[in-house]
Amino acid sequence: MKLDKAVKIVVKGRVQGVGFRPFVFSIAKKYSIKGTVQNNMDGVNIVAEGTAANLHSFIEQLQNNQPRLARIDHVQVEATAMFENYQTFTIIESDRKGKSSLVIPVDASVCPACIAEMTDESDFRYNYPFINCTECGPRYTIIKALPYDRPFTTMEKFKMCPDCKEEYEDPLDRRHHAQPIACPSCGPKLSLLSMEGTVVTTGESALEQCKCLLAKGAIVAIKGIGGFHLACDATNETAVRELRNRKKRPKRPLAVMANERNTIEEITNLSEAEKHLLDSPESPIVVVKKNNHQLIPECVAPGMKTIGVMLPYTPLHKLLFMKADYEVLIMTSANPSGLPMLYQDNEIFSYLRGIADFILTSDREIEHPLDDSVVQIVNNELQFFRRARGYVPDPFFIDTNINGIVALGPQQKNTFAIGRGEQIFIGPHIGDMGSVEVTDHFLHELKHLMKWVGIKHEVIAVDKHPNYETTSLASEMECNRIIKVQHHHAHHVSCMVDNQIKEACFGIILDGTGYGDDGNIWGFELLYGDALSYERLGHMSYYPLPGGEKAVKEPWRNAISLVLSHCEGGLCHLQKLFPYKKSEIETIQRMLKQNLNSPLAGTCGRLFDAVSALLKICDISTHDGEAAIRLSELTDETEWVNDYYQFSVIENGGLLEISLKEMVVELLEDIQKRTEQKRIVQKFHRTIVEMCLGLLMKAFEQRPYLNKQVVLSGGSFHNRFLFYHLVRLLKENGFEVFTHKKVPCNDGGVSLGQLVIASAQTTNKKGE
């Protein structure tokens, strides 16, 4: 398009709160462009006047040379005959009229420039724990309303001093319109509090005393960007064990924070991709393989080959390590099990009494609590365990109008999703919907994000499980239609959307629990379909779970049922394996015979639990997924054993079904022969891979005309061995394989699939 002397430019994307207007101002000055730039509810509007050549260069720079945190999704350039003859280029006041289509800015780790200033004794922000600029600092967690301007954030109460105001108003300064801008004289301040609420000390003294306390083995609740962490010296085994004891978290791995990447490299084996993630603006917790270094005691991540590590992502974190007598800190979420993130001082006193020794807090309030994101790299691919800080609420873009569709997500690892135009906003990690506090947190965050994106829920998608909390909540919301979505279909479509696949394809879904169309518990599924519909082609055979949810928490129950259901001489094996549970075995036998409180299940997660208990790796789970995780930690994805346990793929009721009888018998024989535990675990893992491949190959043999694309979803694909080898074998057999990249393969990605399925069904109904 030929550019005239005047153009109007609309830029959409992550372009507010990231230094975009100062960036536009600087390139306008460079190319002698006159006009204005303005934030509004749609993005950024620019009026530019200049020569055609300069305008061309200006637009090219605008699109190709963006600030650190910016992300441009769309640029619309429109020539205009109106020439206002601007004499300067100015940044004008934001326009708050109209409906919002903004991409809400995300929180970002402290940038190198701010760290340099904070550690410079001559700088007036020396040692200031709330230093920030347009390239770093809090965003989403402090926003009260849009557009993103200081009066609509929790920084509203802090009046800028002359020095900060001068930087804020200077279009060429790095802090121009940096909404959280602050310094020691006008910004937030630290306070060290006792657990009785007494102020011990404030300011820099609070920081120094906190460091001394941590060095002496104390446990301190520390306020970050999105909420409170519990911190202690990770190298002090006594302190770590005391933290576990107080929090009643005996075995769950604890994340650690180290000041420098060099320290992390001493205790782990980092790949280049993992190094890049640690250094990124998102600064997530990265789950990496430990090495044999003795700096970190085993009790930090007991029985694990991996550990969650992160670098300081706030100025406060960075300062906690400066001139400190420790190298690594435990930095774990402070919330009690089953409750949302703690982020207000008054919560800390009630929930952490008897757990924390002191509290390091500040008067900068958190509007929206937000957990740390957790990721890992498998086969050089990014995989989310939890998508939160640094990524939420960045939208997904699709080429379908899904406006007004809201998905409420699953019961566990809950996230919700909101459709606006062709954007899908996935909310923060909520957690498990099992308490009043979590439900209130869910509703609070859903209400705010819906208000920000400017839509009302016309269609609501929920899980098909009749007893999920989200199903009950949907019935209380005003909408035109509620659509119930099968759990594994949502997994399937979530991975399709994650990879922009539209054509119907295969889906292998491996997870722990999902309510099936037949009323049983699914979780080892072969599906074929798209967002509009799906067909269940095959699954793992069912067996009873005695006690239902109790068998999930106590995998030994699951193990007893697995053996009794698949092995004629199973009782004899069980009496040898569990001699101390004779009466319990008899009780479970009666439960199975009488079909008492023993729902039928065929899930990958529960099979892993049962094998973990049979091998005496974990018979009681102290946290979600512990038995399966500890079993998987004994594998090595680089090793591929020559044999595996036998199984059969049979036809049953028009479906392909994996029979476990041969596998269970052979597994028990290996246990009885005292075969090396690691070899049994490796054989079992290969068996699961062979089961998936065998099921798919049998289905394709019956229907060779089907699309050979296959998506992999479900929480079991966090297992490095399953992920690596199943992808490899599927590709070797001619299938095109797609895995999750932007949302978790676990239930944290289910809301994305729910929303797109609801959209397809709504559109289809309109077209009928």
From TrEMBL:
Pfam family, one: HypF_C
Keyword annotations: Hydrolase, Ligase, Metal-binding, Transferase, Zinc, Zinc-finger
InterPro entries xrefs: Acylphosphatase-like_dom, Acylphosphatase-like_dom_sf, Acylphosphatase_CS, Carbamoyltrans_HypF-like, Carbamoyltransferase_HypF, DHBP_synth_RibB-like_a/b_dom, HypF_C, HypF_C_2
GO terms for MF: acylphosphatase activity; carboxyl- or carbamoyltransferase activity; double-stranded RNA binding; ligase activity; zinc ion binding
Class of enzymatic activity (EC top level): ligase
Residues covered by the YrdC-like domain: 204-390
Residues in Acylphosphatase-like domain copies: 6-93
Keyword rRNA-binding attributed: no
Active-site residue numbers: R21, N39
Similarity field: Belongs to the acylphosphatase family.
Name the record gives this protein: Carbamoyltransferase
Biological source species: Anaerobacillus arseniciselenatis
Classification of source organism: Bacteria, Bacillati, Bacillota, Bacilli, Bacillales
